[in-house]
Amino acid sequence: MTSDGKLPILSLRDIKKSYGPIQVLHGIDLDVYAGEVVALLGENGAGKSTVSNVISGTVRPSSGLMRWQGAPFAPASPREALEAGVGMIHQELLLLPHLSIAENIFVGRYPTKAGIVDRKAMEERAEIGLQRLGLDVSPRRLVAGLSTANQQLIEIAKALTLNARLLILDEPTAALGGDETTKLFEQIARLKADGVGIIYISHRLEEIKRIADRIVVMRDGEKVQEFASADVPVRSIVEAMVGRSLDRMFPAIPMPQPETVLEVKDLSSALGSFSGINFKVQKGEIFGIAGLVGAGRTELVRAIAGVDPIASGQVLLNGSEITPRKPQDAIRHGIVLVPEDRKQQGLVLQHSIANNIAYANMNEVAPSGWITARRVASFAQANIAKFGVKGQSHQNADEMSGGNQQKVVIAKWLARNPKVVVLDEPTRGIDVGARASIYDIIVGLAAQGVSVIVVSSDLEEVLGVSNRVMVMAQGKQSGILARGEANDVSIMELATL
Fold first, then answer.
1. What DSSP element (H or E) covers 455?
2. What is the pLDDT of residues 78-94, one digit of tens each?
3. Architecture of domain 260-495
């Protein structure tokens, strides 16, 4: 109960969860009130997802009590939780693209009339939910082709059709641009005004300060700190998350050598994503690429790595043209890409860490052509240790945190001793502690003379790790800034040309 006598809509008391001998939650207490946003923060593996899954009925707690709107609450399934008024919007959206918006909102619970689906009622109710969120789109439209932001709003609308009074949003802006994030925040403000409580999970601390009313920090399965408002220094939040003082986030960056390793000359996309791109990357240089969503950054580095087709222009390595037409061309010459979407493009999630690392290095694992489990495990173990992956070689990749998954992707490509490493959004969805270790890897590569290209939507990140920053806008190169010239203002001026 607050000082003004309000009771929480959700209360957790001494919630514990164990998987066999491993305890992942150690007595969590949490209150959420109507019309407030509670930020739930912590490193990967802190227990945030387990708490969310307990509340949303995906996981049953081992012990402890929950109360929902004053009554005991123990949902046996997500559907039961949703019917009670608790909805969870996952980071990976679960919509069916070839069904209409209305069909997605009511999937599994279609309104019926005389034993058949009542489409008119379904679409009318869906439209009410969409209007409530300010989404001006027909409920009869297919989900395929909608922006990620609009798909998230549809997931929220799905929960609202059941009069959800509490929403759990898990990394809702991970794949959104600045404008889409602003629109989402506007809808969250609307929901707050309607008295909906929100648990908001994100690694983006600056947006937490914009949107949260309170901050709850978890570490190692425990609630370690609660801030009564979001008006606290980011450093204080980070130090609570990692349990130690952070003297620095970004390591010192070495000076590159004068030798040019990679040169891109007048490169244009066959898909129309970018055109006329020119830049050089020196040996041991970290070359940042910044720009707004849709600027063509990802498409550019995919083309350099041979993934996307090139219409014209050249890619040179150590002065020789190697313009790749397929990924194998780039890999053979020593250019590797750590993609933005590690789950879809970087890993085979249902396969072991060892196999994932080995897939890109079979010539090293089995130079004679004979592949054995022992050789795969031995090769993988050496790279797991080298890059600080927290996991056993036999574990499947989908059992790991986002930060450790990213380290596996990096490890598999760095095992090839590349000349150029391209990282597209290397810390997307990764906690603060794991970020710092990935920055150490990036800077370590540069110190060894490897040329590194980093694409990032996080301005602090691209500024923190780059010797130079190229800014893109609408598929064009708008400028290249030296480290001393690059700052938030100078980058945004070029990004909005």
1. strand 451-455
2. 889 988 999 888 766 67
3. 3-Layer(aba) Sandwich (3.40)
